[in-house]
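Tutorial, part two.
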Amino acid sequence: PLATAGASAGWQRLAYGSAPEEGIELALPPRAQACPLLVFIHGGYWQELAAADSLFAAPACIERGIAYAAV
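Running the prediction step on this input gives:
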């Protein structure tokens, strides 16, 4: 899959619903036009954690030119 950077590189929060917890945390590498995208889907207890708690791999991905999304 490819991530296309329509906005500047860096951290973005994309809402998919009206509730505060309904969002995707997206990290884009610098100068991203089209790059690989790694999507981390939290598979457990959403009442305790949020997408932002799943950003542990984002820095390593960005350093390698890979976009990272935590859902």
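Strands lie at 2-4, 10-15, 23-28, 34-40, 67-70. In part three we will examine how such features are distributed along the chain.
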